[in-house]
Amino acid sequence: MHALIAQIKPVDSASGDRARAYLDTLTKPPGSLGMLEQLAIQLSEISGELASSITPPGVVVFAADHGVAAEGVSAFPQAVTAQMVANFAHGGAAINVFARQINAHLEVVDVGVVSDVEAPGVIVDKTRRASGNIATENAMYPEEAQAAIEAGIRAVERARKAGCRSVIIGEMGIANTTASSAMLAAFTGTAVEEVVGAGTGLNSQQQTHKVSVIERALAARDYEADKPLSVLAALGGLEIAAMAGAYLAAAAYRLPAVVDGFIATVAALTACRICPAVRGYLVFGHRSEEPGHGVALEALEAKPLLALGMRLGEGSGAALAFPLLQAANAMMAEMATFASAGIADKAP
Ligand SMILES: Cc1cc2ncn([C@H]3O[C@H](COP(=O)(O)O)[C@@H](O)[C@H]3O)c2cc1C
Ligand SMILES: O=C(O)c1cccnc1
């Protein structure tokens, strides 16, 4: 992990400047393609070129269980995590459908599901079976947090070996909005009720209970808010750690990483707290309905591409945003310039 982090370089801002200047030579009023222009600039900063291939994307879905599920903080039982892993393996989940639409290479990695899922293609890279119940104990030891981060790094290294030129990181883990809300409150000092939402579908009374469980965890756990590994170990989850590792690896290998919803953004914030240069490699796919997502996005000064009223996870919102990255690249590669098309570029 430390060797990989030492490899991370800030994105190439000179390349971004070249892209910005080139955009104004294309046959359109300056700035008229809005966020797509910002996206093209960011992709140039990442690749060091005006346009470069980002396909195929690698979708990695990390799955793990959470001891805090025992506190009744999710509308669904813990067993759904393993059942959804089998669903991913058989191609039936939302992320499978959206990954097929963008011709992605998809891998499911079990980094901490309680049961073993007998399904084709699932990579088993477990650090432990489920994190501890954060209301009563630490989620994991710091060494386990590091091991799960390394599982995330390995997954991106496999995607890269398989030829992927960008990554979309997703997750599955019943009760992981509870862990994510706890981490976000710890990182930002935001009041717990502002970072808690319905998750899979809690009613308002159940959400009040979820707030009290998280407040209990924050009061009882020992962590240092400015030490991301300590927050991860005290309050996080194995798939959240692996996702943070995946963002670190994407930055180290200069691959654009599309960030999904609430859980993914908390993992991305963790990676950026570990190494701030990661931020330049992150493209934010969508704004989730989960209220904490706005807080996490603000902490990263991030403006997501889409807002579709989604609150699923799995990497679904990031996969749906991916065609916009392709459009930004294609615009740079294929649009005519004022000079090449013989169009007047200014009013006389
Ligand atoms: C069938 C099903 C499929 C899912 N796919 C993603 N999640 C999402 O819901 C979970 C987080 O919500 P909470 O904290 O309320 O448990 C995560 O597993 C997340 O990926 C799902 C949840 C369910 C039930
Ligand atoms: O935004 C998300 O990623 C999310 C929201 C609710 C439930 N699962 C995931």
Spatial order of the strands forming the largest sheet: 3-2-1-4-5-6
Tell me which CATH architecture of the largest domain applies here. Answer: 3-Layer(aba) Sandwich
Tell me what portion of residues adopts beta-strand conformation. Answer: 5-15%
- The third-level CATH topology of the largest domain is Rossmann fold
Question: What form results from the Cα inertia axes?
Answer: globular
Structural class given helices, strands, pairing? alpha/beta
Tally of structural domains: 2
Got a strand count? 6
SSE topology string: HHHEHHEEHEHHHHEHEHHH
CA distance, first residue to last residue: 58 Å
Largest sheet: 6 strands, parallel
CATH superfamily of the largest domain: Nicotinate-nucleotide-dimethylbenzimidazole phosphoribosyltransferase (CobT), large domain
The parts where pLDDT drops under 50 for at least 5 residues are: none
The residue fraction in helices comes out at: 40-55%
Give every kind of bound small molecule, once each: alpha-ribazole-5'-phosphate, nicotinic acid
Tell me the radius of gyration.
Answer: 20 Å
Please tell me the overall pLDDT.
Answer: 98
Number of helices: 14
CATH class of the largest domain: Alpha Beta
Family: Belongs to the CobT family.
Keywords: Cobalamin biosynthesis, Glycosyltransferase, Transferase
GO molecular function, one term: nicotinate-nucleotide-dimethylbenzimidazole phosphoribosyltransferase activity
Pathway: Nucleoside biosynthesis; alpha-ribazole biosynthesis; alpha-ribazole from 5,6-dimethylbenzimidazole: step 1/2
